[in-house]
Specification:
The chain has 166 residues and is of the alpha+beta class. Helix content is 51%, strand content 18%. The protein has a single domain, classed as Reverse transcriptase/Diguanylate cyclase domain (Alpha-Beta Plaits). It has a 4-stranded antiparallel beta sheet with strand order 2-3-1-4.
Amino acid sequence: MVGKKMFFIKAFLRSERLRDQVSFDDFLATYTKEKLTAFANSDIHNDRNNEKELSMILFRMDWDKSDPFFVREATEKLMESIRFEIREHDVLAKWDEGRFLLLLPECSEESAQKIAHLIKSISEAKSFVNMHVKLEYALTLHEDNDTPDSLMERLEQKLAQKCETV
């Protein structure tokens, strides 16, 4: 039997807003849409009463150069690098220009913080097409009364607040 969190994940992955956002970048969206569809249709997560939390992280990228060609190349390299740091059933999607989303099913807030910090530190230490990136991130957990839109609004507000203070 599929639990509430899996229902939410499937609803989120099929939401119009997510489809609109990931369709932004042809190269990345092709892979991302296939991954989202496969994940939404899979039964690898059978929620139970003791289900674990669903965490989401939204990262904002600030590149040290502004050339669109090199930023695109560097973003692709960064996304490839991040894919090696996440679990097979985690979902990585380019959210919009300069931001990407990481959906972490069955992941506590503490574990999500560790993953976000690891991704941030590894990414900022690397050079992508002779460019460096600074990542800011916001993290939130799924709450029982969340809809896909309310969850993303909360996550985007947290990221905006964090970026204002930096």
